[in-house]
Amino acid sequence: MQSIFFLTFTSSAKFIGAGLATIGVVGAGAGIGIVFAGLVIGVARNPLQENKLFQLSLLGFALCEAMGLLALMMAFLILYS
Question: What would the pLDDT profile of 18-41 be if each residue is shown by its tens digit?
């Protein structure tokens, strides 16, 4: 038998851990903003390189979004395991 204190403690620890794991989503949002700000600045400086800069910005967007999704996945694993 587990005590009510142990069950309450573990469930509250899960909620705190899931909340802390979602901080990574904020970093992904900031990263995406920085990537597209760099795209705008780069196109403004050199419009002829627009296609290459857009390809690289999509790669940066995908990597930032993947990190955000991994952070969200970890939060759900902590919460529902």
Answer: 999 889 899 999 999 999 999 999
Residue 12 lies in a domain: no
Please check whether residue 6 lies inside any domain of the structure. Answer: no
Q: Report the chain's mean pLDDT, rounded to a whole number.
A: 92
DSSP per-residue letters across 1-54: ---HHHHHHHHHHHHHHHHHHTHHHHHHHHHHHHHHHHHHHHHHH-GGGHHHHH
Residue 65 · residue 31 · CB < 8 Å: no
In a domain, 63, yes or no: yes
Q: What is the CATH number of the domain that holds 51?
A: 1.20.20.10
